[in-house]
């Protein structure tokens, strides 16, 4: 499946990636390419390793002491697990949005300004304000919060909090955005807003979204990867996966036979 | 009969009540006409409670009021007419008479006391017998009452439950009532003090020298501001300058950097420090740190530096408080959801940026509450300052100079020659009351902050 030659045109490429938590092999020999301007959905039954694999893409697995990652993951052709990769820089380039909205207990402004501040992206206060405004606008939250930027981020509704987290992630101008079931804790209306937002963001970033909701995958993604028991079973154009899956297991899953 | 034996007898009666009641309940049971509502043993406990609790309650009340009654009876006796009118002297003679009554060979006794001894002895034993008799009668009467109530449908079980609940309630009230009692007595003694000394002189006066009190204007030398300042300076400034940074840093290390193995032994070790008796810290302050601080001051060019500097006491007190601050900060850091940490790390922040910009600010209310509690402990701390701080009340900003604290002055005022009516002694109560109120306020504020903070993460 994998080739020694890596076309630089892929934004990220995983080559033979396995992850183990102690003795538990959670992800097995996964190889996958992720491209700019596309939304890639990871689907599969719960516990099949979607989140674990997603976390390898920005090395968030480093924060779990028992996790061991093997194989290589290239970002613009550069192995992010090589010794000279700066994790801080990597995570600025590959941003992440979590399942449960996790705004910091700071003001809305400070939440968005957090990344630009630690990475020194703004040279002046006006600059910083411009970044915050642009990010909130892109996250579709500006109109709702522009008059109360100094209110606490934790005082927003769940859907607003999640969009704030998205604004926080895009404030550092990442190239890839990873989203781990970003709407699973939200009500249908807030979910629809997030999906709409993903549509709008598609042109600027490579987006990877984990979801256990197949309709959602069909709605927001151009590519879909089906995971089962730690393996990547099938990966292709979303339309093909949902209308003409090649693997028996994929078919069983999307027709609701199990999961 | 002494109280101990009497209690045993009452407990024995309780056992008899238990056995009798159970036997009676069993008879109903065997009669088989009707099922018992409660188990036989529950009837037993019901009767036992009735047999034991009323006489014990009576004895508790009796032992509180009978000494007064004994004294009244003795004073009414013509033999006691020679007793002095001064309460203090009179009570001393009566106490001696009582000692002679218990041990006729007691020496060095006022002759009047020796003459009164038989009267005192007889009166006391008469009241003791009355108490014993009433207690025994109560035990019998209440026990018998309980046993007569046993019927198949009698709900002994719920009654026992209720009695148990009341007993537990009383047990938990005791600590609260004791605190209240202490507060009330402090309050009354303080009121007496403020009868001698205007409260404004005490709270705002800046001259404190209880050794030389002008009888006409005691307030002039009982101004407590130097003590308040010294307490604040040693306990809330110097000690906290040590305890806050070190406590916070060790909490950050333990929650964020230490491996589980390190944490497993380091945290209990640190917490063990909190169990070291403060007198040990006192030694350390007086014998090691204080001389070192004096040398330091001499090096700085003050050949007459005090060896009882505020710095020595404050530093050691700070060390003593470190585990306290650290464990409170540890708890509040651990209460910050890991999602906050992950969110920050995923933005590309380093661990130390995450700690200083997200975790510590998020944990701040809890840390502040911990510091307030630590301050309240520090200003109430006594042993270290008694051993290492000075008795001289000065208002100074120089930590190498001597300063004294409220607790140290209380100890000085109450030890040694003391008459219980003088403004000098009563001042100790006013100081105690002030300390009590301040610590109470600090604790209330801290607990509120903690509560608010807990709610924020629920
Ligand atoms: N932090 C962790 N420590 C140990 N095991 C984990 C951890 N996270 C996930 N796992 C295990 O890895 C496997 C895959 O989990 P996960 O990646 O969360 O699946 P998914 O996101 O597809 O539901 C599961 O068996 C899970 O128990
Ligand atoms: Mg998951």
TrEMBL record, chain A:
<dbReference type="GO" id="GO:0035435">
    <property type="term" value="P:phosphate ion transmembrane transport"/>
</dbReference>
<keyword id="KW-0067">ATP-binding</keyword>
<dbReference type="InterPro" id="IPR017871">
    <property type="entry name" value="ABC_transporter-like_CS"/>
</dbReference>
<keyword id="KW-0547">Nucleotide-binding</keyword>
<feature type="domain" description="ABC transporter">
    <location>
        <begin position="12"/>
        <end position="254"/>
    </location>
</feature>
<dbReference type="GO" id="GO:0005524">
    <property type="term" value="F:ATP binding"/>
</dbReference>
<dbReference type="InterPro" id="IPR003593">
    <property type="entry name" value="AAA+_ATPase"/>
</dbReference>
<dbReference type="GO" id="GO:0016020">
    <property type="term" value="C:membrane"/>
</dbReference>
<dbReference type="GO" id="GO:0005315">
    <property type="term" value="F:phosphate transmembrane transporter activity"/>
</dbReference>
<keyword id="KW-0592">Phosphate transport</keyword>
<dbReference type="Pfam" id="PF00005">
    <property type="entry name" value="ABC_tran"/>
</dbReference>
<keyword id="KW-0813">Transport</keyword>
<protein>
    <submittedName>
        <fullName>Phosphate ABC transporter ATP-binding protein</fullName>
    </submittedName>
</protein>
<dbReference type="GO" id="GO:0016887">
    <property type="term" value="F:ATP hydrolysis activity"/>
</dbReference>
<dbReference type="InterPro" id="IPR003439">
    <property type="entry name" value="ABC_transporter-like_ATP-bd"/>
</dbReference>
<dbReference type="InterPro" id="IPR027417">
    <property type="entry name" value="P-loop_NTPase"/>
</dbReference>
<dbReference type="InterPro" id="IPR005670">
    <property type="entry name" value="PstB-like"/>
</dbReference>
Automatic annotation (TrEMBL), chain B:
<dbReference type="InterPro" id="IPR022182">
    <property type="entry name" value="PstC_N"/>
</dbReference>
<dbReference type="GO" id="GO:0005315">
    <property type="term" value="F:phosphate transmembrane transporter activity"/>
</dbReference>
<dbReference type="InterPro" id="IPR035906">
    <property type="entry name" value="MetI-like_sf"/>
</dbReference>
<feature type="transmembrane region" description="Helical">
    <location>
        <begin position="127"/>
        <end position="147"/>
    </location>
</feature>
<keyword id="KW-0813">Transport</keyword>
<protein>
    <recommendedName>
        <fullName>Phosphate transport system permease protein</fullName>
    </recommendedName>
</protein>
<keyword id="KW-0997">Cell inner membrane</keyword>
<dbReference type="InterPro" id="IPR000515">
    <property type="entry name" value="MetI-like"/>
</dbReference>
<keyword id="KW-1133">Transmembrane helix</keyword>
<comment type="similarity">
    <text>Belongs to the binding-protein-dependent transport system permease family. CysTW subfamily.</text>
</comment>
<dbReference type="GO" id="GO:0006817">
    <property type="term" value="P:phosphate ion transport"/>
</dbReference>
<dbReference type="Pfam" id="PF00528">
    <property type="entry name" value="BPD_transp_1"/>
</dbReference>
<dbReference type="InterPro" id="IPR011864">
    <property type="entry name" value="Phosphate_PstC"/>
</dbReference>
<keyword id="KW-0592">Phosphate transport</keyword>
<feature type="transmembrane region" description="Helical">
    <location>
        <begin position="168"/>
        <end position="188"/>
    </location>
</feature>
<feature type="transmembrane region" description="Helical">
    <location>
        <begin position="270"/>
        <end position="290"/>
    </location>
</feature>
<keyword id="KW-1003">Cell membrane</keyword>
<feature type="transmembrane region" description="Helical">
    <location>
        <begin position="310"/>
        <end position="337"/>
    </location>
</feature>
<keyword id="KW-0812">Transmembrane</keyword>
<feature type="transmembrane region" description="Helical">
    <location>
        <begin position="358"/>
        <end position="379"/>
    </location>
</feature>
<comment type="function">
    <text>Part of the binding-protein-dependent transport system for phosphate; probably responsible for the translocation of the substrate across the membrane.</text>
</comment>
<dbReference type="GO" id="GO:0005886">
    <property type="term" value="C:plasma membrane"/>
</dbReference>
């Amino acid at each position: 499946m994998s080739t020694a030659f890596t076309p630089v045109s892929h934004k990220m490429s995983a080559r033979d990636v396995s992850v183990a938590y102690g003795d538990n092999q959670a992800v097995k020999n996964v190889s996958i390419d992720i491209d700019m301007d596309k939304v890639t959905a990871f689907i599969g039954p719960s516990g099949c390793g979607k989140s674990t694999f997603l976390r390898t893409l920005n090395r968030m697995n480093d924060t779990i002491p028992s996790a061991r990652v093997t194989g290589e993951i290239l970002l613009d052709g550069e192995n992010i697990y090589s010794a000279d990769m700066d994790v801080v820089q990597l995570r600025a380039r590959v941003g992440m949005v979590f399942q449960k909205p996790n705004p910091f207990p700071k003001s809305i402004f400070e939440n968005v300004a957090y990344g630009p501040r630690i990475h020194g992206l703004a040279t002046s206060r006006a600059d910083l304000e411009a970044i915050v405004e642009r990010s909130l606008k892109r996250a579709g939250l500006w109109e709702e919060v522009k008059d109360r930027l100094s209110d606490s981020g934790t005082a927003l509704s769940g859907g607003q909090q999640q969009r704030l987290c998205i604004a926080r992630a895009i404030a550092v101008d990442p190239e890839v955005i990873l989203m781990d079931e970003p709407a699973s804790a939200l009500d249908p209306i807030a979910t629809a807003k997030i999906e709409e937002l993903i549509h709008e963001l598609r042109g600027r970033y490579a987006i990877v979204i984990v979801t256990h909701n197949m309709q959602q995958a069909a709605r927001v993604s151009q590519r879909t990867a089906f995971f089962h028991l730690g393996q990547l079973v099938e990966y292709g154009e979303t339309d093909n996966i949902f209308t003409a899956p090649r693997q028996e297991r994929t078919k069983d899953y999307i027709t609701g036979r199990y999961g | 009969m002494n109280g101990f034996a009497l209690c045993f007898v009452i407990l024995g009666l309780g056992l008899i009540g238990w056995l009798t009641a159970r036997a009676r309940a069993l008879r109903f049971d065997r009669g088989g006409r009707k099922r018992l509502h409660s188990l036989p043993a529950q009837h037993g406990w019901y009767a036992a409670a009735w047999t034991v609790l009323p006489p014990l309650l009576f004895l508790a009340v009796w032992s509180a009021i009978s000494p007064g009654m004994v004294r009244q009876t003795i004073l009414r006796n013509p033999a006691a007419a020679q007793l002095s009118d001064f309460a203090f002297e009179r009570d001393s003679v009566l106490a001696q008479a009582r000692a002679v009554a218990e041990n006729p060979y007691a020496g060095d006794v006022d002759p009047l006391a020796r003459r009164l001894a038989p009267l005192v002895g007889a009166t006391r034993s008469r009241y003791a017998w009355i108490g014993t008799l009433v207690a025994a009668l109560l035990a019998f009467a209440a026990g018998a009452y309980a046993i007569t109530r046993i019927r198949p449908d009698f709900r002994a079980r719920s009654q026992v439950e209720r009695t148990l609940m009341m007993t537990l309630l009383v047990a938990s009230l005791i600590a609260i009532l004791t605190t209240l009692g202490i507060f009330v007595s402090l309050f009354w003694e303080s009121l007496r003090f403020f009868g001698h000394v205007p409260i404004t002189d005490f709270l705002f006066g800046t001259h404190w020298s209880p050794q030389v009190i002008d009888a006409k204007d005691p307030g002039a030398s009982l101004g407590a501001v130097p003590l308040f300042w010294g307490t604040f300076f040693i306990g809330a400034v110097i000690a906290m300058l040590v305890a806050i940074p070190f406590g916070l840093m060790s909490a950050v290390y333990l929650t964020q950097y230490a491996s589980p193995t390190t944490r497993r032994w380091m945290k209990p070790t640190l917490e063990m420090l909190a169990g070291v008796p403060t007198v040990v810290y006192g030694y350390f302050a007086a014998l090691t740190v204080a001389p070192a601080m004096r040398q330091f001051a001499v090096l700085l060019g003050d050949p007459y530096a005090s060896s009882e500097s505020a710095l020595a006491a404050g530093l050691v007190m700070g060390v003593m408080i470190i585990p306290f601050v650290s464990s409170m900060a540890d708890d509040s850091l651990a209460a910050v959801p890991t999602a906050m940490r992950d969110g920050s790390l995923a933005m590309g922040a380093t661990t130390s940026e995450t700690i200083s910009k997200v975790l510590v600010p998020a944990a701040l209310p809890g840390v502040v509450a911990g510091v307030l509690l630590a301050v309240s402990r520090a200003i109430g701390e006594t042993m270290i300052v008694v051993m290492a701080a000075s008795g001289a009340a000065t208002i100074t900003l120089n930590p190498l100079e001597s300063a004294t604290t409220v607790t140290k002055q209380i100890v000085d005022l109450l030890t040694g020659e003391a008459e219980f009516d003088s403004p000098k002694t009563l001042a100790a109560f006013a100081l105690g009351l002030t300390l009590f109120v301040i610590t109470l306020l600090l604790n209330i504020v801290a607990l509120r902050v903690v509560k608010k903070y807990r709610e924020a993460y629920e």
